[in-house]
Amino acid sequence: MTATQNTQPNTQNVAYAALVTRLSLGVMYLAHGLLKLLVFTPAGTAQFFESLGLPGFFAYLTILAEIGGGLLLIAGIGTRLVSAALIPALLGALFLVHADKGWLFSAPGGGWEYPAFLIATSVVAVLLGNGAYALADRLPVLRETKLAS
Predict the structure, then answer these.
(1) What is the C-alpha separation between 65 and 32, in angstroms, rounded?
(2) 3-class secondary structure for the chain?
(3) In this predicted model, what pLDDT tens digit does every residue of 8-59 receive, in sequence order?
(4) Would the pLDDT of 110 be above 70?
(5) CB contact at 8 A, 83 and 25
(6) Radius of gyration of the CA atoms of the chain, in A
(7) What is the largest CA-CA distance in the chain?
(8) Cα–Cα distance between 42 and 36 in angstroms, integer?
(9) Within 10 Å of residue 62's Cβ, how many Cβ atoms?
């Protein structure tokens, strides 16, 4: 790169990068919440949480947070707030479930690389905000709140 080239980021590209990040995280959270709801069942998820030493009702809160948060991220409503609020669930998964399984997620029981990557990606979403095509930026009632970019 020469000294005369513009080194400022293209804001259009940043908005699209935020969109891809937001949608990827939203789909991932939604899928994980639906997995707990439809496959493991809320009762089974609660039993697993209890086996970790957590109160069983945390499972229900986690399912609600993952499904609701995933839908909000997909819609582009409160990306910064939602992404930050979901990081504790990922920290729980990282330290209580995956940390002792090794690094690779393909290891038996799943290693810690995937939840660590999702935490980093969530921090990126907090920094970038809603990005392009966010519902919060299109609806006046949401645009005037902290839920917009």
Answers:
(1) 10
(2) CCCCCCCCCCHHHHHHHHHHHHHHHHHHHHHHHHHHHHHCCHHHHHHHHHHCCCCCHHHHHHHHHHHHHHHHHHHCCCHHHHHHHHHHHHHHHHHHHHHHHCCCCCCCCCCCHHHHHHHHHHHHHHHHCCCCCCHHHCCHHHHCCCCCC
(3) 667 789 999 999 999 999 999 999 999 999 999 999 999 999 999 999 999 9
(4) yes
(5) yes
(6) 18
(7) 62
(8) 6
(9) 23
